[in-house]
Amino acid sequence: MTTTATAPPPTAPAPAAARRLPAGPLAAGLAAALLLSLVCGVALGSTGLGWSHVLRLLGAGLTGGRLPAEEAAAYAIVWEIRLPRTVLAAVVGAGLAATGVAVQAMVRNALADPFVLGISSGASVGANAVLLLGAFASLGIWAISVSAFGAALLAMVLVYAAARTSSGLTPLRLVLTGTAMSYGFSAVTALMVFAAARGEAARSAMMWLLGSLGGATWGSVPIAAATVLAGLGHLACAAGRLDALAMGDETAASLGVDGDRLRRELFAVTAAVTGTVVAVSGAIGFVGLMVPHLTRMLVGAGHRRVLLVAPLAGALLLVWVDVVSRTLLAPAELPVGVVTAVLGVPCFLLLMRRRGHTLGGR
Questions:
Q1: What is the Cα gyration radius of the chain?
Q2: Of 128, 186, 224, 260, which sees the most CB atoms within 10 A?
Q3: What share of the chain is helix, strand, coil (3-state, %, to 5)?
Q4: DSSP character for 77?
Q5: What average pLDDT score do residues 82-95 get?
Q6: Global pTM value
Protein backbone atom coordinates (compact mmCIF):
# COMPACT_ATOMS: atom_id res chain seq x y z
CA MET A 1 0.00 0.00 0.00
CA THR A 2 1.34 3.35 -1.00
CA THR A 3 1.03 6.46 1.10
CA THR A 4 1.07 10.04 0.00
CA ALA A 5 2.96 12.59 1.91
CA THR A 6 0.98 15.50 3.22
CA ALA A 7 2.35 18.94 3.67
CA PRO A 8 2.70 20.05 7.25
CA PRO A 9 0.15 22.62 8.38
CA PRO A 10 1.25 26.21 8.18
CA THR A 11 2.93 27.46 11.26
CA ALA A 12 0.55 29.51 13.38
CA PRO A 13 1.73 32.92 14.48
CA ALA A 14 3.27 33.02 17.90
CA PRO A 15 0.83 34.06 20.58
CA ALA A 16 1.04 37.60 21.88
CA ALA A 17 2.26 36.39 25.27
CA ALA A 18 5.35 34.84 23.63
CA ARG A 19 6.27 38.17 22.03
CA ARG A 20 5.75 40.30 25.11
CA LEU A 21 8.47 42.55 26.42
CA PRO A 22 10.14 41.69 29.73
CA ALA A 23 8.36 43.72 32.37
CA GLY A 24 11.36 44.30 34.65
CA PRO A 25 13.69 45.99 32.13
CA LEU A 26 10.76 47.90 30.64
CA ALA A 27 9.79 49.21 34.10
CA ALA A 28 13.39 50.21 34.77
CA GLY A 29 13.53 52.10 31.48
CA LEU A 30 10.24 53.85 32.20
CA ALA A 31 11.46 54.80 35.69
CA ALA A 32 14.62 56.36 34.24
CA ALA A 33 12.57 58.17 31.59
CA LEU A 34 10.21 59.41 34.30
CA LEU A 35 13.06 60.91 36.36
CA LEU A 36 14.39 62.69 33.29
CA SER A 37 10.88 63.85 32.39
CA LEU A 38 10.39 65.34 35.86
CA VAL A 39 13.43 67.54 35.28
CA CYS A 40 12.14 68.43 31.81
CA GLY A 41 8.73 69.27 33.27
CA VAL A 42 10.36 71.72 35.65
CA ALA A 43 12.60 73.27 32.99
CA LEU A 44 9.92 73.75 30.32
CA GLY A 45 7.32 76.48 30.66
CA SER A 46 6.20 79.92 29.57
CA THR A 47 9.10 81.47 31.53
CA GLY A 48 12.33 80.31 29.93
CA LEU A 49 14.86 78.82 32.34
CA GLY A 50 18.07 77.21 31.13
CA TRP A 51 18.78 73.59 31.96
CA SER A 52 21.89 74.41 33.96
CA HIS A 53 19.97 77.10 35.82
CA VAL A 54 17.15 74.69 36.69
CA LEU A 55 19.57 71.99 37.84
CA ARG A 56 21.37 74.53 40.02
CA LEU A 57 18.11 75.71 41.58
CA LEU A 58 16.99 72.12 42.21
CA GLY A 59 20.35 71.30 43.75
CA ALA A 60 20.19 74.34 45.99
CA GLY A 61 16.73 73.37 47.18
CA LEU A 62 17.74 69.78 47.88
CA THR A 63 21.00 70.60 49.66
CA GLY A 64 19.99 73.85 51.33
CA GLY A 65 22.54 75.86 49.39
CA ARG A 66 22.53 79.65 49.24
CA LEU A 67 21.44 81.61 46.18
CA PRO A 68 21.81 85.27 45.20
CA ALA A 69 18.81 87.48 45.95
CA GLU A 70 18.18 88.10 42.25
CA GLU A 71 17.41 84.39 41.78
CA ALA A 72 14.57 84.37 44.32
CA ALA A 73 11.90 84.69 41.62
CA ALA A 74 13.34 81.84 39.54
CA TYR A 75 13.68 79.71 42.67
CA ALA A 76 10.00 80.29 43.51
CA ILE A 77 8.96 79.33 39.97
CA VAL A 78 10.92 76.07 40.15
CA TRP A 79 10.18 74.97 43.71
CA GLU A 80 6.76 76.45 44.43
CA ILE A 81 5.03 76.20 41.05
CA ARG A 82 6.60 73.83 38.54
CA LEU A 83 8.06 71.07 40.71
CA PRO A 84 4.92 70.34 42.79
CA ARG A 85 2.84 70.48 39.61
CA THR A 86 5.12 68.05 37.77
CA VAL A 87 5.31 65.65 40.71
CA LEU A 88 1.53 65.76 41.11
CA ALA A 89 1.11 65.01 37.39
CA ALA A 90 3.20 61.86 37.85
CA VAL A 91 1.22 60.82 40.94
CA VAL A 92 -2.15 61.39 39.25
CA GLY A 93 -1.07 59.58 36.08
CA ALA A 94 0.14 56.58 38.07
CA GLY A 95 -3.06 56.47 40.12
CA LEU A 96 -5.38 56.67 37.11
CA ALA A 97 -3.46 53.99 35.20
CA ALA A 98 -3.43 51.58 38.16
CA THR A 99 -7.10 52.05 38.95
CA GLY A 100 -7.90 51.59 35.28
CA VAL A 101 -6.28 48.16 35.44
CA ALA A 102 -8.25 47.29 38.58
CA VAL A 103 -11.61 48.50 37.28
CA GLN A 104 -11.26 46.60 34.01
CA ALA A 105 -10.55 43.41 35.95
CA MET A 106 -13.32 44.13 38.46
CA VAL A 107 -16.10 44.58 35.89
CA ARG A 108 -14.50 42.46 33.11
CA ASN A 109 -15.14 45.21 30.59
CA ALA A 110 -12.51 46.53 28.18
CA LEU A 111 -14.27 49.91 28.01
CA ALA A 112 -14.13 50.49 31.76
CA ASP A 113 -11.98 53.20 33.30
CA PRO A 114 -11.71 54.77 36.79
CA PHE A 115 -14.64 57.09 36.04
CA VAL A 116 -17.16 54.41 35.06
CA LEU A 117 -18.26 54.02 38.68
CA GLY A 118 -19.57 57.59 38.90
CA ILE A 119 -16.89 58.64 41.42
CA SER A 120 -15.46 61.47 39.33
CA SER A 121 -18.90 62.84 38.48
CA GLY A 122 -19.72 62.92 42.19
CA ALA A 123 -16.44 64.71 42.90
CA SER A 124 -17.32 67.24 40.21
CA VAL A 125 -20.51 68.13 42.08
CA GLY A 126 -18.50 68.80 45.24
CA ALA A 127 -15.81 70.85 43.50
CA ASN A 128 -18.30 72.97 41.59
CA ALA A 129 -20.29 73.60 44.75
CA VAL A 130 -17.19 75.45 45.95
CA LEU A 131 -16.33 77.15 42.66
CA LEU A 132 -19.86 78.25 41.79
CA LEU A 133 -21.71 78.48 45.09
CA GLY A 134 -18.91 79.32 47.50
CA ALA A 135 -19.53 76.28 49.71
CA PHE A 136 -16.95 75.43 52.40
CA ALA A 137 -15.25 78.79 51.88
CA SER A 138 -13.98 78.64 55.46
CA LEU A 139 -11.56 75.87 54.42
CA GLY A 140 -9.59 78.26 52.24
CA ILE A 141 -7.27 76.62 49.70
CA TRP A 142 -8.43 73.18 50.84
CA ALA A 143 -12.10 73.86 50.08
CA ILE A 144 -12.15 72.37 46.56
CA SER A 145 -10.13 69.26 47.45
CA VAL A 146 -12.08 68.51 50.63
CA SER A 147 -15.45 69.09 48.99
CA ALA A 148 -14.56 67.04 45.91
CA PHE A 149 -13.22 64.14 47.96
CA GLY A 150 -16.22 64.16 50.30
CA ALA A 151 -18.62 64.17 47.35
CA ALA A 152 -16.65 61.33 45.74
CA LEU A 153 -17.02 59.21 48.87
CA LEU A 154 -20.74 60.00 49.01
CA ALA A 155 -21.06 58.97 45.36
CA MET A 156 -19.22 55.72 46.17
CA VAL A 157 -21.68 54.95 48.97
CA LEU A 158 -24.68 55.69 46.73
CA VAL A 159 -23.38 53.57 43.85
CA TYR A 160 -22.52 50.69 46.16
CA ALA A 161 -25.91 50.81 47.89
CA ALA A 162 -27.77 50.87 44.57
CA ALA A 163 -25.67 48.17 42.91
CA ARG A 164 -25.54 45.78 45.86
CA THR A 165 -27.97 42.85 45.77
CA SER A 166 -28.51 39.75 47.88
CA SER A 167 -26.37 37.82 45.39
CA GLY A 168 -23.46 40.21 45.68
CA LEU A 169 -21.90 42.96 43.58
CA THR A 170 -22.17 41.79 39.97
CA PRO A 171 -20.03 43.45 37.25
CA LEU A 172 -22.90 44.35 34.92
CA ARG A 173 -25.03 45.86 37.70
CA LEU A 174 -22.04 47.83 38.98
CA VAL A 175 -21.31 49.30 35.54
CA LEU A 176 -24.95 50.14 34.85
CA THR A 177 -25.43 51.74 38.26
CA GLY A 178 -22.22 53.74 38.00
CA THR A 179 -23.13 54.95 34.52
CA ALA A 180 -26.65 55.98 35.58
CA MET A 181 -25.35 57.79 38.68
CA SER A 182 -22.70 59.49 36.57
CA TYR A 183 -25.37 60.95 34.30
CA GLY A 184 -27.28 62.17 37.34
CA PHE A 185 -24.23 63.84 38.93
CA SER A 186 -23.28 65.39 35.57
CA ALA A 187 -26.77 66.86 35.29
CA VAL A 188 -26.43 68.46 38.73
CA THR A 189 -23.04 69.90 37.74
CA ALA A 190 -24.40 71.25 34.45
CA LEU A 191 -27.27 72.90 36.31
CA MET A 192 -24.86 74.63 38.68
CA VAL A 193 -22.72 75.87 35.78
CA PHE A 194 -25.79 77.09 33.91
CA ALA A 195 -27.08 78.97 36.94
CA ALA A 196 -23.72 80.50 37.86
CA ALA A 197 -23.97 84.26 38.17
CA ARG A 198 -20.27 84.88 37.52
CA GLY A 199 -18.78 84.09 34.13
CA GLU A 200 -15.26 83.61 35.53
CA ALA A 201 -16.55 81.09 38.07
CA ALA A 202 -18.21 79.09 35.27
CA ARG A 203 -14.94 79.16 33.32
CA SER A 204 -13.03 77.86 36.35
CA ALA A 205 -15.63 75.13 36.78
CA MET A 206 -15.29 74.03 33.16
CA MET A 207 -11.49 74.06 33.50
CA TRP A 208 -11.76 71.78 36.52
CA LEU A 209 -14.21 69.47 34.77
CA LEU A 210 -11.73 68.99 31.92
CA GLY A 211 -8.80 68.48 34.28
CA SER A 212 -6.15 70.93 35.41
CA LEU A 213 -3.00 70.75 37.50
CA GLY A 214 -2.68 74.52 37.81
CA GLY A 215 -3.66 74.48 41.47
CA ALA A 216 -0.94 72.02 42.52
CA THR A 217 0.83 72.85 45.78
CA TRP A 218 3.20 70.99 48.06
CA GLY A 219 0.30 70.63 50.47
CA SER A 220 -1.68 68.46 48.02
CA VAL A 221 1.19 66.24 46.83
CA PRO A 222 1.82 64.15 50.00
CA ILE A 223 -1.85 63.19 50.49
CA ALA A 224 -2.29 62.20 46.85
CA ALA A 225 1.03 60.34 46.76
CA ALA A 226 0.31 58.42 49.98
CA THR A 227 -3.14 57.36 48.76
CA VAL A 228 -1.85 56.28 45.35
CA LEU A 229 1.07 54.34 46.87
CA ALA A 230 -1.26 52.58 49.32
CA GLY A 231 -3.61 51.69 46.48
CA LEU A 232 -0.74 50.39 44.34
CA GLY A 233 0.50 48.29 47.24
CA HIS A 234 -2.90 46.71 47.75
CA LEU A 235 -3.36 46.00 44.05
CA ALA A 236 0.13 44.51 43.76
CA CYS A 237 -0.63 42.12 46.63
CA ALA A 238 -3.92 41.18 44.92
CA ALA A 239 -2.38 40.63 41.46
CA GLY A 240 -2.85 36.85 41.56
CA ARG A 241 -6.48 37.20 42.62
CA LEU A 242 -7.03 39.77 39.86
CA ASP A 243 -5.84 37.22 37.30
CA ALA A 244 -8.41 34.76 38.62
CA LEU A 245 -11.21 37.35 38.73
CA ALA A 246 -10.55 38.41 35.14
CA MET A 247 -11.37 34.84 34.03
CA GLY A 248 -14.83 34.95 35.62
CA ASP A 249 -16.36 34.32 39.02
CA GLU A 250 -16.74 30.57 38.49
CA THR A 251 -13.11 30.13 37.54
CA ALA A 252 -12.06 32.38 40.40
CA ALA A 253 -14.13 30.31 42.85
CA SER A 254 -12.50 27.11 41.60
CA LEU A 255 -9.14 28.71 42.38
CA GLY A 256 -10.23 29.66 45.89
CA VAL A 257 -10.91 33.35 45.19
CA ASP A 258 -14.12 34.91 46.50
CA GLY A 259 -15.10 37.12 43.56
CA ASP A 260 -17.70 39.14 45.43
CA ARG A 261 -15.38 39.91 48.33
CA LEU A 262 -12.52 40.86 46.00
CA ARG A 263 -14.85 43.08 44.00
CA ARG A 264 -15.83 44.93 47.18
CA GLU A 265 -12.15 45.43 48.02
CA LEU A 266 -11.39 46.72 44.55
CA PHE A 267 -14.40 49.01 44.62
CA ALA A 268 -13.22 50.62 47.86
CA VAL A 269 -9.59 50.95 46.72
CA THR A 270 -10.39 52.38 43.29
CA ALA A 271 -12.96 54.77 44.76
CA ALA A 272 -10.47 56.08 47.33
CA VAL A 273 -7.67 56.54 44.78
CA THR A 274 -9.93 58.00 42.11
CA GLY A 275 -11.60 60.36 44.58
CA THR A 276 -8.22 61.57 45.81
CA VAL A 277 -6.64 62.22 42.41
CA VAL A 278 -9.80 63.82 41.04
CA ALA A 279 -9.96 66.08 44.09
CA VAL A 280 -6.50 67.51 43.31
CA SER A 281 -6.49 67.46 39.50
CA GLY A 282 -10.05 67.47 38.21
CA ALA A 283 -11.52 64.89 35.88
CA ILE A 284 -8.66 63.87 33.57
CA GLY A 285 -10.02 61.27 31.20
CA PHE A 286 -8.57 58.63 28.91
CA VAL A 287 -5.43 57.81 30.94
CA GLY A 288 -7.16 55.02 32.86
CA LEU A 289 -8.62 53.58 29.65
CA MET A 290 -5.67 53.75 27.26
CA VAL A 291 -2.65 52.99 29.45
CA PRO A 292 -3.86 49.57 30.75
CA HIS A 293 -4.57 48.36 27.21
CA LEU A 294 -1.24 49.64 25.92
CA THR A 295 0.55 47.96 28.81
CA ARG A 296 -1.13 44.60 28.19
CA MET A 297 -0.10 44.76 24.56
CA LEU A 298 3.51 45.25 25.63
CA VAL A 299 3.90 42.86 28.56
CA GLY A 300 0.91 40.51 28.42
CA ALA A 301 -2.21 40.20 30.52
CA GLY A 302 -0.70 39.04 33.81
CA HIS A 303 -1.63 41.61 36.43
CA ARG A 304 1.67 41.37 38.27
CA ARG A 305 3.47 42.58 35.13
CA VAL A 306 0.76 45.05 34.17
CA LEU A 307 0.70 46.69 37.61
CA LEU A 308 4.49 47.03 37.51
CA VAL A 309 4.52 48.87 34.19
CA ALA A 310 1.16 50.69 33.90
CA PRO A 311 1.65 53.20 36.78
CA LEU A 312 5.03 54.24 35.40
CA ALA A 313 3.60 54.59 31.90
CA GLY A 314 0.66 56.62 33.22
CA ALA A 315 2.96 58.89 35.21
CA LEU A 316 5.25 59.45 32.22
CA LEU A 317 2.31 60.18 29.94
CA LEU A 318 0.67 62.73 32.22
CA VAL A 319 3.92 64.58 32.95
CA TRP A 320 4.36 65.27 29.23
CA VAL A 321 0.67 65.98 28.70
CA ASP A 322 0.91 68.64 31.41
CA VAL A 323 3.98 70.13 29.74
CA VAL A 324 2.06 70.38 26.45
CA SER A 325 -1.02 71.84 28.15
CA ARG A 326 0.90 74.76 29.67
CA THR A 327 3.34 75.49 26.83
CA LEU A 328 1.40 74.95 23.60
CA LEU A 329 -0.63 78.18 23.89
CA ALA A 330 1.46 79.94 26.56
CA PRO A 331 0.72 82.03 28.52
CA ALA A 332 -2.77 80.54 28.21
CA GLU A 333 -3.25 77.00 29.52
CA LEU A 334 -5.16 74.14 27.92
CA PRO A 335 -7.19 71.76 30.09
CA VAL A 336 -5.19 68.57 30.59
CA GLY A 337 -8.18 66.40 29.68
CA VAL A 338 -8.37 68.03 26.24
CA VAL A 339 -4.75 67.12 25.52
CA THR A 340 -5.19 63.52 26.72
CA ALA A 341 -8.18 63.14 24.41
CA VAL A 342 -6.43 64.71 21.41
CA LEU A 343 -3.41 62.45 21.89
CA GLY A 344 -5.24 59.40 23.15
CA VAL A 345 -8.05 58.93 20.63
CA PRO A 346 -5.89 58.47 17.51
CA CYS A 347 -3.35 56.44 19.46
CA PHE A 348 -6.03 54.13 20.81
CA LEU A 349 -7.65 53.69 17.38
CA LEU A 350 -4.24 52.81 15.91
CA LEU A 351 -3.66 50.25 18.64
CA MET A 352 -7.07 48.72 17.96
CA ARG A 353 -6.25 48.32 14.27
CA ARG A 354 -2.82 46.84 14.90
CA ARG A 355 -3.78 44.58 17.82
CA GLY A 356 -7.54 44.29 17.37
CA HIS A 357 -7.67 40.66 18.53
CA THR A 358 -7.03 41.83 22.08
CA LEU A 359 -9.87 44.35 21.93
CA GLY A 360 -12.71 42.35 20.48
CA GLY A 361 -11.37 41.85 16.96
CA ARG A 362 -10.80 38.59 15.07
A1: 23
A2: 128
A3: 75, 0, 25
A4: I
A5: 94
A6: 0.86
